[in-house]
Amino acid sequence: MTTICVDAMGGDETPDVVLSGIEAALSRDADLSVLVAGDEDVVVPFCESHDRAKALVTTEVIGMAEHPAEAVRAKKDSSIVRGCAAIRAGEADGFFSAGSTGAIFAAATLGVGRIRGIKRPAIACAVPGSTGRSTVFLDMGANADVRPEMIVQFAQMGRAYSRVTLGVEDPKVALLSNGTEDTKGSEAVVAEHEALKAAGDWFVGNCEGSDILRGVHDVIVTDGFSGNVALKTLEGTAKFILGEVKKSVAASFAAKVGALLLKKSLKGVAASLSGDEYGGAFLLGLKAPVLIGHGATSKDAVMHGTLACASAVRGELVRKIAEDISQDA
């Protein structure tokens, strides 16, 4: 039985949304058990009425606006801190939360611990591609300033994630830059390019921002500052496109009729842009799988995030990352 601890108090939605997602995950996976962390009046009634669910009663919640490191130090009985501690205590195999990314990063780094040899954990997610091929993109915001050797580690972790999650046998890695030529980019990017080139034949060179959603690369790696800017730009663009489509549909009767005919297709596009299919982003480099959900998470996102975390445990993602790092140490 694989046990995933889920933070019932994380995210912008009410705990009921998280609990609905947990319920859906349990119904999908008969070999899954969930340790539900949160307020007593939230988690106890749910766990009493669901097999394979156990309550982890906590008394504090870390808000989205709180300073992450300070909140983790001050709120030892928060659902995020206790959830990460449950892994070290052997009560859970992985952790999922849609709470504060910074707080999860701090609590998981301290509570779960890094894999031996890992300098800094990185946030990674599989993004959809126009070819139907998904691309692992990292770092999405954990490390604004990096050194070339850290980028190499991010690439190695991204390759392991691609193998376990997407089934790619020998993932290739591209470096995000402002041009595909080897000499393009800032001094830092040029140095990262040289480090990746020396690391292995799995490095295929530079790529551009327009390649992120093209589905032409297995893994795209960058620093956390650039990665987060790119991620927020993609999210904003997706919201803009969907908003414009909705306005266009409302503009005329003919458009409404066309929208009805295309409703199923439009829902598919919206689902792929929302990221619910993957549940969130993995914090790679830790001794157990930790998955960070989007703040405005949904029932489906919680379900997929919980299942993805369990799948990473069973696929031995942590062991494979550790092996890749030790081989290149």
Structure notes:
It is built from 12 helices and 11 strands. The two termini are 34 Å apart. The protein has helices at 15-28, 40-48, 68-74, 79-88, 101-111, 148-166, 187-199, 224-251, 253-261, 263-274, 299-314, 317-327; strands at 2-7, 32-38, 53-57, 94-97, 122-127, 135-138, 173-176, 203-207, 219-221, 281-284, 290-292. With 329 residues, it is α/β, with parallel strands linked by helices. Strands 3-2-1-4-11-10-5-6-9-7-8 form an 11-stranded mixed β-sheet, sandwiched between helices. The chain folds into 2 domains: 1-118 and 285-319, Isopropylmalate Dehydrogenase (3-Layer(aba) Sandwich); 124-274, 3-Layer(aba) Sandwich (Isopropylmalate Dehydrogenase). The model has no long low-confidence stretch (mean pLDDT 88). Strand 10 (281-284) and strand 11 (290-292) form a beta hairpin. It is globular and about 60 Å long.
* Strand proportion: 15-25%
- The total number of structural domains is 2
Oligomer: single chain
Task: Pick out the low-confidence regions.
Answer: none
Written as H for each helix and E for each strand, in order along the chain, the element string is EHEHEHHEHEEHEHEEHHHEEHH
Helix content: 40-55%
Name the CATH architecture of the largest domain.
Answer: 3-Layer(aba) Sandwich
Q: Please state how the strands of the largest beta sheet are arranged side by side.
A: 3-2-1-4-11-10-5-6-9-7-8
Radius of gyration, in angstroms, nearest whole number:
20 Å
Task: Based on Cα principal axes, name the global outline.
Answer: globular
The main pleated sheet reads as: 11 strands, mixed
CATH class of the largest domain: Alpha Beta
pLDDT averaged residue by residue = 88
Q: In the CATH hierarchy, what is the superfamily of the largest domain? A: Isopropylmalate Dehydrogenase
Number of helical segments? 12
Task: Output the CATH topology of the largest domain.
Answer: Isopropylmalate Dehydrogenase
Termini Cα gap: 34 Å
Decide which structural class fits the backbone: alpha/beta
